[in-house]
Amino acid sequence: MKGIVAYDSVNGNTKQVAEAMAEQIKADGHEAELINLKDGAPSPTGDLLLIGSPTRAMKMTKGTAKFIESLDVGYWKTRPVYMFDTVGPLSKDDAKRKGQLEMIGSGGKNAAEKMRDLATQRGLHVRPEVMHFAVVGMWGPLASDSLSRAKDAAKRVLAEANK
Q1: Per-residue model confidence as pLDDT tens digits over 63-100
Q2: Which domain holds residue 137?
Q3: How many distinct structural domains can be found in the chain?
Q4: Which residue intervals of the chain are DSSP H helices?
Q5: Where residue 66 sits, what CATH number does that domain have?
Q6: Residue closest to 51 by CA, chosen among 2, 116, 98, 95
Q7: 25-61: per-residue pLDDT in tens?
Q8: Dihedral of CA 59/64/69/73: which sign?
């Protein structure tokens, strides 16, 4: 199986999450391709696609929107597409941060939900669950549990894709 992790990153946080996901895909014995959207990637081919963006002013980056709009609908309408974002600044306190992430996940004021909606409108096979990873400062760093959560998310995605 080949997993593609495509991301845009402004301060390096989304890049770190994407790298952790790609690492986990490889660690589980699969092929992983990491695509930095700033490099102007062509429409990728693989068995599953994870797309990440920082949340900027409650939206995805323009580069992420352009990438989603450029994807081959015929190809990705039958293969799973997952969305993730980095959000912050959130609390350094684990319990408070968990609550903040839960609130973010249901309000539509984040990049991942907007990415999911755009991809769904285009006819891609988008999975409904979106993933949020916390940044504890305005520009970083990531919360202490974000990279382990990213690896766990990659494991869940692989398990779902293998069903």
Answers
A1: 999 999 999 999 999 999 999 999 998 888 888 988 88
A2: 2-161
A3: 1
A4: 13-27, 62-70, 73-76, 94-104, 111-122, 146-161
A5: 3.40.50.360
A6: 116
A7: 999 999 999 999 999 877 789 999 999 999 998 899 9
A8: negative
